[in-house]
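To: structure subgroup
Subject: Chain for Friday's discussion

All,

I'm putting the inputs and outputs inline so they're searchable in the archive.
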Amino acid sequence: MTDDPQITPELLLHAYCSGMFPMAESADDPELFWVDPQMRGIIPLDGFHISRSLRKRLKSGRYRFTANVCFDRVVDLCAKRKTTWINDEIRTLYGKLNRMGYAHSIEVWSTEGLVGGLYGVCIAGAFFGESMFSSKTDGSKLALVALVARLNAGGFSLLDTQFLTDHLVRMGGIEIPQKEYRERLERALDSEADFWALPPDAGVQELLQLSTQTS
């Protein structure tokens, strides 16, 4: 672990390119530690699954999607749970990455306001998902649909979810060994992609087409 004040956004970017990411033990713990899992969670961008119920919710017309409209708020809401690895240093560092153009958020809105979202780090053709939240049913799933559509539109090749949950498995997530992950990461970092290839006002039909499979 380290509480070294010299941790910088540049060091974080280097760590991601090496296959590592930082976490804290809790919101109150000032120290960060580096994680390099033996098994890595990813979502193959050509194998993303949208359930019929989620597709119906998406097509209901009750939601709209944005990117980077309220990055800091999304991070705060991701941390608003009983146990979290997001401490003040994480907030500060990722806020800086956002202002540098490397960290992005996806927001899901309804008439009730912000109901879901996620954030992560973008380097070349890789997107490293950090955390997501829901304040209403399926809020984080809807955010993930919008993210996958954006990544497919922009030519990305790697969506790293770090760990795998049942939630992610149902949407096409898989685990791969560290060696395979690093090979995929190297290829992704050697490619070009554009997070902003999808227009900010993309409609539901475009999101569905770009996020591929249904089930």
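Points worth raising on Friday:
The chain has one domain: 38-82+102-214.
The first helix runs from residue 9 to 17.

D.
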